[in-house]
Amino acid sequence: MKTKAPHDLETAGTRERIVRTASRLMQRQGYEGTGIKQISREAGATLGSVYHFFPGGKQELGTAAVRLGDEEFTELLRESLDAEPDPAKALVALTASLAEGLRESDWLDGCPVTSTVVGTAGSAPGIQRAAAEAFARWRAVVAAKLVAARFAEADAEDLAHTVIATLEGAELASQVARSETPLEAAGRHLARLIASYGGSGHS
Amino acid sequence: MKTKAPHDLETAGTRERIVRTASRLMQRQGYEGTGIKQISREAGATLGSVYHFFPGGKQELGTAAVRLGDEEFTELLRESLDAEPDPAKALVALTASLAEGLRESDWLDGCPVTSTVVGTAGSAPGIQRAAAEAFARWRAVVAAKLVAARFAEADAEDLAHTVIATLEGAELASQVARSETPLEAAGRHLARLIASYGGSGHS
DNA sequence: GTCTATATTGGGATAGAC
DNA sequence: GTCTATCCCAATATAGAC
């Protein structure tokens, strides 16, 4: 059994602290904009420790940061979808909580996976792969929810592509505009799109 | 009257060459991942020329690159929407051409504005502002098309938010997945969403 | 406007003591 | 596993001749 990660940085192990700090910094500054020295400093670890846990250097660290972002958003997605039987209503609530998170960070913390992966196309294949896996997992979670709400499987997988893409795009648009409007509109329109398939949709 | 920009890099003026090279490189590598020396080298200009035209340094250059990406996508958007009276059908065609462009670049060239602005939140306000203006202009172009197709103005502006957000997100998802599927699904679903408002929608 | 040279800082990465 | 010191290189930016 794997060690459970403590939720505060203080009591977490060194490796945990490094990954979480890397993820948080890359979420704000991007992969190229974040230095290993900055990560080690803010994580309270020495440079030697960083290279001890991540001998593959910055790319390996970036990949681990993307995987952590993947897990975190998967968790948020599952919570939102489990809290409400109707997938359309659940997505409206999800966009609201994404907007709230953005505003609370003064529009600095967008999607950690997107921020980290943008700009690494062709130069950091490990990060690309981890980001592709993240998007695929999120799509699968959404599709499963739709299937559970009696959508046809083909429709569910098809819709899941657009749900994830629209969430990504709307979070980016909200961040750039420093406004909740894009996410709010995305939530309403995704709900409407979903309703146009299965009626009310909840089982 | 402003000087018309020649379309090939060879005969363009130095300033033009620098901006276009910057835009293209930042589209692939992001703002932080692109160096001024690389830009000057690939543009066939000296470092002195770069700082002559852009005394504000990298930030001013990045802002100009975002504005160029804004103009280019505005043009593509207008062309796509003008070629087809039904906005829903026009968006399907647009997603297809975006997917084609991505595939032709081996999935390297995503949205130049998005790639450049991500990671600059809080550290490069000029770039942030230029990106916000770009998104707003694109929304206005889409909204105008919808109004011309007899949509209510409130619905048109509301839908335009989601159209732009979904296009952005789907282009990103297609790039990461190295697949046309996300853009293709986005086109179909945006068409369906639009059709759910105004019927066939064309005047 | 263009060019070369350079100042300065910080980047990723490594070595080896403890 | 942790720490310090260091290597090497690229980054942004500037100065000043032409």
UniProtKB/TrEMBL annotation, chains A, B:
- A Pfam family cross-referenced in the UniProt record is TetR_C_13_2
Which SUPFAM superfamilies does the entry mention? Answer: Homeodomain-like, Tetracyclin repressor-like, C-terminal domain
Q: Any idea which GO molecular function terms this record carries?
A: DNA binding
Residue ranges of domain HTH tetR-type in the record: 12-72
Q: Which keywords does UniProt give here?
A: DNA-binding, Transcription, Transcription regulation
InterPro entries for this protein: Homeodomain-like_sf, HTH_TetR, Tet_transcr_reg_TetR-rel_C_sf, YxaF_TetR_C
| Superkingdom | Bacteria
State the DNA-binding region(s).
35-54
Name of the featured protein: TetR family transcriptional regulator
